[in-house]
Amino acid sequence: MAYTVTDYKTKKALKEDLLAGKRIAVYQPGPFSDRLPSNGVVYLEGPHYPRPHTWYAKGVLRDGVLIQVDSTKAPAGHARHRAAPLHQHTHTRRASR
Q1: CA–CA gap between residue 55 and residue 21 (Å, rounded)
Q2: Which one of 47, 71, 73, 90 is most buried, by most CB atoms within 10 A?
Q3: pTM above 0.70, yes or no
């Protein structure tokens, strides 16, 4: 499961930004960050850890940019320019007691 770089509290807010033409990048947290495709299907969840996930979505990436969430598509021409590279996101584990 992947996260959007912006920590959306609801799937509705994510879809609204997509329809507004905002560029939405995603990342895969943890040790499997290299498995996130630049093009194709991606599964999203939010809000970000440590808050409980309250929404899940199936999205489509093109050149690293989210172009579709469930049945909501971005405006035409939305993913023409490649997204700026993102820095590596990782979660840290708490030390066991």
Answers
A1: 21
A2: 47
A3: yes
Using CA atoms, how far apart are residues 54 and 77, in angstroms rounded to an integer? 30
The sheet that has 55-62: what strands, in order across it?
Answer: 40-46, 55-62, 65-69, 72-73
Residue linked to tokens 């959007």: 4
Q: Is the peptide bond before 50 cis (omega within 30 degrees of 0)?
A: yes
Q: What distances in angstroms separate CA 2 from CA 24, 37, 80, one per listed residue?
A: 12, 11, 22
Looking at residue 77, its pLDDT comes to: 62
Who contacts 29 (Cβ-Cβ below 8 Å, separation ≥6)? 2, 3, 49, 89, 90, 91
Q: What is the SS3 string spanning 14-83?
A: HHHHHHCCCCCEEECCHHHHHHCCCCEEEEEEECCCCCCCCEEEEEEEECCEEEEECCEECCCCCCCCCC
64/85 Cα distance (integer angstroms): 9
66 — pLDDT class (breaks 50, 70, 90): very high
